[in-house]
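Quick one before lunch.
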Amino acid sequence: MTCRPHFAPHGSGFIMSKIQQPYSSDSLTRYSILDDATGLLRSYRNRRSSKNATGAESRPALRVVAVAPPDWIHGKKDKRALNSSDPASLFNACRVAASRALSRTGAWANSNWAGETRSKVRANFLLLYSLDDIPAFVEMMEREKPNVLLLGAMTLCIPGAIECAKIAKEMFGNDIVVVLGGRHATETIYLWHAKARQVADVVHHRASPARLIREGRLPPVFDVVVSGDGEFFIAELGEILERKRAPYDLKAIFVEFDRATLGDWIASLPASSLEVVSAGVPINANELPPLASLFGVSAAFDVFGGRMTAHVFSDTGRGCVYDCDFCSEKSGVTGGLRDIANAAKRLYGQLEDAVNVIEEDHPDRGASAFVEDSILLGGSPRALDTLCELLEAKPLPIEFGAQFTVDQILQREPQIARLSRAGLRYIFIGLETFDPDEIGGMSKNIGSRNGSWQARSERVFQILAQNGIACGCALLFGLGESHHSRIALLDAVVEARRQTGCPAFLSANWAVQHPLRGQTGGLEYDYLDWGTPAGPYLDNFHHFGEASLNYCLENQAPPEIHELEEIVHRLRAFQSS
Ligand code: B12
Ligand code: SF4
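Model of the iron/sulfur cluster complex:
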């Protein structure tokens, strides 16, 4: 999310002073006190033993459940905080497999995703917010009796992923293969150089889940840990597992696994120390299926006034064109943009697909979409023009939102106006302290000659208001700014809203140190503990997007509780005004 919330640090070689505790058996059970889930598991075990006595049911050979594990130990997100219940990252990872299931191609035709409708596919996906949601996970596992669990986890979700994997192993033992992928695995298992593709070139960060299992600091709950592109890897794994029967000989399967399977990925088998490095054959983004027709559209963002909201993506890579030190989308970690030349066409195709699916599934609602690009089409002027031309030549009945940086809006004012006529109704921007020098600068801060960061932000609010574009704003704290400057920032956005109506939405975030493939100046957590334990900090952080008490940036301390309460108080005032 552009400058959406969650970020990482300014490295300077400082070694963290907080020593991580080894993963003790106590901490394994500490978070498993899930009364509802425990009850569900117990009744599941009873039913399973009585079913075993009466014989097995007939089920497809491949039964896959895909879950985004929770990032919080417990609680519910504040209703007024920005949120989404779609695991869009997992949708992206599973889109080739889903498309095979729906077109009944290959082994996926014999899976629990295969069927006439996309709701059949969607029913096997779940996004969890906190451990309070675990009963829904247990129910899904009980219903589908999967032999493959796909976990797509971000860094703060790792304790949640461990809980989900433990439950899966408790329910199905060696009959289930637990595969962990997603951002955290990608940032902690990587090649020291993109072109060096031998097993010896693989680096495991201190927080690599495979390394933690091998070091005995984490029980062997993940069978395979996958870094990088999931699309063809997941599809291929399904093709293989559909032909095998449990218990699976994963080592034998992965010794044979085709390294030419498309994408840039590394598969690590913690139990056997086996690693498979893909040949790195690039995925042709133009051939990837759009998400809406595979998974349907189930969200409706408030900003689009009741229209259903699809997640669309121009597939120009996993990150951003900029390289801000503290951000997980930085080009230094994600590799920057790919195939920008065809990006506008791809995005138009995804918007068109969203319109068709929403018309079919929700005929009375109207269509909207949020573009998940870090920055819409990488901010490329040419690609933005092409998108406008496509939308002008063949208009679509859709409103959409996207992300830009402050300076890009200022530099591309005519294009923003043109896009607003073509359906752009919402822009999400990131704001850090109004004094970038306080935090050591930002890569995206490219317009400092044209006025202060505050003056430029205020100009952006005016431009968006003039063009009838609603503005959402991610505020990021914890970068080194003073508390006084945080409050000044909040006061300034409240005042801007009073004057211009912008921003309409605020999301506050406390910068989290992500592993960033080691680009952290020496600061390395293992992320085995929850980001924030239960207590007053957690209660307040439910008003935030991403935040953590334990994983602050290098040299940064968490807020004092009274400071946090003051921020939340102002956020509430903003939200209810
Ligand atoms: C859409 C999105 C969301 C959605 C959907 C989340 C979801 N779990 O699906 C919502 C709004 C709910 C969300 C929430 C959160 N998000 Co978010 N989100 C994104 C966003 C904008 C796009 C993700 C995406 O689809 N990218 C494109 C695809 C192609 O890349 P990808 O996600 O890495 O997925 C590929 C691989 O990782 C892999 N893969 C993914 N899952 C799996 C699973 C398996 C089994 C395998 C084998 C492979 C695999 O295959 C995919 C395709 O190649 C990214 C920023 C970005 N531009 O990527 C942030 C981002 C991923 N989010 C982030 C964070 C921190 C969060 C939250 C923890 C905090 C928050 N409140 O925002 C929560 C976690 C919620 C949860 N329980 O998972 C960070 C992650 C950083 C990190 N190292 O942890 C990012 C990078 C933003 C940032 N700059 O910090 N997010
Ligand atoms: S790298 Fe910078 S500009 Fe890009 S998404 Fe991250 S914070 Fe925003």
